[in-house]
Amino acid sequence: MLRAYAQLVRALPQAPTEVARTLFAHKSLEKALRALLRQLSSLVCDAEELPDGVAVDLLAVLQRLREHGDPSLLQGLAGQEGAVDVAVLGYAYKIDTLALLNALWPRIDWAEWCSIAHAALSSSVHHFFQVPWTEGVRRVRRAAILAQAMLTTVPSASLSSCMDGPAWGDVLSRAYHHVLAVRRIPPDEASSSASPWPTAWLATKVELLTLADEVLLRTSTADAEPVLTAMNACAVDVPDAVALVDASLVDDLRMAAPRATHVVQACPTMFPGMAWAAARQALEPAPQTDPALVDMVLAILPHLARPSVEARLAKPRYKGMTQEAIMEAFLDDPEGLRDLDDDYDPCDVAARDPAAQEADAPLSSDLKQAILAAAEATDTLEEEWDVGTELTPAQQAERVLLQAYLHDASVFARTKNARSSPLRKQLRESLSSLGAWGDDQIEGWAVMLERNPRKHDMLIQAQRMVAPNVNQGSQSGWGPDKVKGGRVPGAPRGGRRGRGTGRAPGRGGGRGRGH
């Protein structure tokens, strides 16, 4: 698809006036170019390989539109959001895009620009514990690349008024010392890596070091001390620390040949070769998983995250398996626990943390942050059960499914009789307006629920959300009602509404749900 877009871009006229005339005559081109710009920017942030020359050609087209002199045409094609994408592509290919940014975002506020970059990294750190570890690492790396791209476009004259150095130091410290702490690497991730350390994790640390250097380049010597202090705020003193593994951000930066030598003096000893080799591996294109196979799994188990499915299918045990065998493996073990090492107990990660084994010791700052993040995530999820909350179709569907499960779990059996039963037919009809819910999806949802450690809480929450149903004459009315709730079949009318203690359906427990 990208190559087809590349041909389209290269077919556009070279003269600025002719490019503008072509876009005026074919409005669909504007939409296609906007989508291409966004996709290319996303691939750069994910450190993916781009088709030869397409990004450079697209920037050239945008430059020709700017030269045409009609800013409304360029802003209609990309606008302020497109300015960020342009900055990313310019950073990746070392192209000066400042004039183009000013055309896309007239009277651009560089302080707001830097704030957007900071917010992207801060968000990836804040939500790290709410997603699977591999996805969290990917998001942090993506945000670090985006922030680098945005900071490099800020004019030197605007730096002193728009850069909050200590705030950047704080978020970099939390990312480097807290969420990417080596002790947080899941055992299965460490053991599946081609080197002693996961390559994507090392590459993310390298991106954060590059970003830290970028921040310090924009910090004067007089203002450097509070920034460096913030960068090391979360650092843990580790005797004989290994570079890129458990050393502090500032110490690692000294070993990475920094450019900001007016603030951080370079160390004569560079990074060990093994760490750099592992980081370089992560920059190479990842092994491709058959997209059709991933789509097949997601069609049956839509709650799983695509990156986690792709990573799982890339494991050796799935090579040579038939599609039927792969589907059976995912249905029997949706969370992929059998793919982990035999010595990995997912419920015992905290118990193996040395800090957690000292009962009388005070909570570490890392543990406090993790508890606060988990508590905030739970509060957010519980709000989705409020009667007045607007629900997505997926969330409404899960409530219907939970209520059907409470009424008669046998309706979810993977048998011919269950599929042809009146109850299954009624369930399919209740879900027909809420997405693609065929028999396979319904049965797959039930398998996942059975393995969900929060199953009991979810069912209790569903019972508490009893509400009058438009189909009050039927004992098995499962459809969503006017208040976005649903009636539990067989439950007394007028049941208590309100919050419970379980995770909201649609964002249920388990790795990769809701992402």
From TrEMBL:
- State the residue spans of region: Disordered: 469-515
**Protein name, as recorded:** CUE domain-containing protein
Q: State the species of origin.
A: Malassezia equina
